Amino acid sequence: MLKFNRLGFAYCRGDITQIKTASFSFRIKPLESMLLPSYKGSTLRGGFGHAFRRVVCAIKSRECTDCLLKEKCVYSYIFETPPPADTEIMRKYKAAPHPFVIEPPSEQRRNYGQGNELIFGLTLIGRAIDYLPYFIYAFDELGRIGLGKGKAKFELGDVSCNGETIYDSETKTLGTFKTGILPLEPDLLNNRTDNSKLITLSFLTPTRIVYNGHLTLELEFHILIRNLLRRLSLLYYFHCGGNPSEWDFSGIIKKAEGVKVSVRRLRWHDWERYSARQDTRMKMGGFVGEIIFEGDIEPFMDLIRAGEVLHVGKGTGFGLGRYEIR
Hints:
Elements: E1 3-4, E2 18-30, E3 34-35, H1 41-56, H2 74-80, E4 100-103, E5 111-112, E6 118-125, H3 132-145, E7 154-161, E8 164-168, E9 173-174, E10 180-183, E11 196-207, E12 210-211, E13 214-215, H4 221-240, H5 249-256, E14 260-269, E15 272-275, E16 280-283, E17 286-296, H6 301-310, E18 323-325
Parallel strand pairs: 1-9
Antiparallel strand pairs: 2-6, 2-7, 2-10, 3-5, 4-6, 7-8, 8-9, 11-17, 11-18, 12-13, 14-17, 15-16
Helix pairs in contact: 1-3, 4-5, 4-6
């Protein structure tokens, strides 16, 4: 069993417009030959979900939607996140956005053996930070279950945060760590002066952004901001105890329409994942590449920087929608 210090984390306060996060690096060591796909986000997310349910679910024969414990269960909170019965927003949705992002390694390597290491990232959001021990225990259990084709066994090495080891596999001890803050001040957006600048965003993993009911390749700045606003406001509300009801969504979007595309170098990247739950292969394509926007960028930088950490679009739990500000 894990032994860990009392962390005592307070998550996001409702009177401050910010999202609390913590980012970790996991190191795993294969114990036998391991074959993984080039993009490892789906494999890591799928294996982790299976192991997580195995170690924490009290009634494994039921779906979360039919379970009496769904509003108190750690697995349900992390993977299903049912909106509370008295929720003021998102009433038409069955689940809120997941409070975690898995960032697979960028390397395309597929074969790993003894002596090799695989390092991936994990970002937790708001209340989910308190459940880090469950994430570590689940990945430790996944090592015994096996990962990839043939279910190759591995050993969880250490977990680090900001370059410092916080979990040691030898002692099974979890130490303290520092959290980060992503400020969100959309209520200030309309008070900035015009100042035309350029910003380059490099999309590193397939990005699935929906506009007018369809996945789009023709990204515009206001479409990006619409998707960031939706994702960040829901994370802020459901996982950080905040209330985005006073955000001026229409004003923010209207101002975003004034920022134009200067250069668009995006291309579509198709890939598939296997869904054990649906027993089928699913297409999960999205765009990658660079885009340069020109206009009054500064008012939107809080949102853009937050998206750089928390990703944007659909499939963020698999590591999709990752971009960097260049």
